[in-house]
Amino acid sequence: MATTLSPEERLTMFHRQLDLIHPEEAAKLQVTVIGAGAIGSFTVLALAKIGVTNITVYDEDTVEDHNLPNQYYRLEDIGKKKVVALAEIVEAFTGVQITPVAEMYVAQPVSGVVISGVDSMDARMEIWKNLKGFYPDHYLDARMGAEVGQIFAVEPANFLSAEEYEEKKLFPSTEATPGACTARSTMFCANGLASLVTAQVSNIINGRRTKNMTIDFRNFTISEPVV
Fold first, then answer.
1. Contact assessment for residue 98 and residue 33, using Cβ atoms and an 8 Å cutoff
2. pTM check: above 0.70
3. Are 192 and 148 in contact (CB under 8 A)?
């Protein structure tokens, strides 16, 4: 939740985006990312790259060799806790020091923006049950399967937004469409989805609306999710 750069250095660094995302505004935002896998690892780096400095990441997993093709980790990270490796990578690339928490998100207090990048519907249901009582300003639920990604943008304090998400977008893993373990994710899908999640955060920083979207990376289409 800090940066090794001075405010003056940050203004120089972010000169080319000052009229798009001002680093002072980005630095005010509290972001919690749940899951440091395919979606989360790319998203955390992208957030730091646009100037967000107050980032907490929850994940209890360890980097394994099969994570390398679709997650932002290095060969040397195999065996490390994902959040520890990610903290090293983000600081090396951006000077931002994230807060790594090598444990599951259970019911730790959250505020600001919460981003979910977990890989099962049961995990999403548990996250929603545990965080909705804290009423963060925004909740972005990012999902990925094969070459399709989805982002659901929720305002937990808005009854209609929360109710629609809970009733129409959450269901147990037994009702999810099964997929082969060899067709779950690719780097371009994870990276592309992380970019769109980061664009949603940019809208939040600038006071613009967020929206639900489905992204088909095979056919190059973006649409509203079908309920």
1. no
2. yes
3. no
